[in-house]
What does this fold into?
Amino acid sequence: MKKIVLTYGLIAGAIVSVMLVVTQPLFRNGTLNIDNGVYVGFGSMIIAMSLIFFAIKSFRDQHLQGVISFGKAFKVGILIALVASVMYALTWEVYYNTVGQDFMEWYQQCQLDKMTKDGASEQELTDARIEMEEMAVHYKNPVFRFGFTLIEIFPVGLIFTLVSAGILRKKEFLPA
It folds into this structure.
C-alpha cells in the first residue's frame, strides 16, 4: 500500500505543483485571466486527484484479488490526497517566499480593480480593502498560509476518496 500511496500521491502532487508554478506568471502577465483562475486551479486539482480512483482500483485489483473494503479504500485515497495536498502547499510556500512575495498585494489590486469595473461604490471598495488587509496580515503567518493552502486542495481529494471508495468497494464495478 505504501508504494501505491507514495507513487500516486507524488504524481498527483507533481501535477498540481507544476500547474501552480506555471500558471502564476501567466496570471500576472495577463496571458490567463485571473477571473478564470478558479477554473484553472480546480481543474488541475480535479485532474490530479482523479488519480485516487486509479490508485484504489490498482490496489484492489493487484494486491487484494479484486475486493476492497470501504475503509481500506478510504485509507489509500485519503493518504494520496494528503501527500498531494502537502506537496501543493509546500510548493506554494517555496513559490511565495521566492518569487511571489507580493502575491497578496497583486491579488488585492486585481479584486479591487474588478469591483471598480463592476461598479462597486466607494463604501464597498473601502470595506473590501479593510477585509483584504486583515487577510493579508494573517497571510504573512506561514502556519496560517500553509493551512489555508491545504484547505484549497484537500477537500477535492476527500471528495474523490469518498466517491472512489464507495464505488470501488463493489467488486462488480470494473473487475480486474
Q: What stands out?
A: The chain has a mean pLDDT of 94. The helical segments are 2-28, 37-49, 51-63, 70-98, 103-117, 122-139, 142-168. The chain is about 80% helix and 0% strand. The two ends are 18 Å apart (CA to CA).
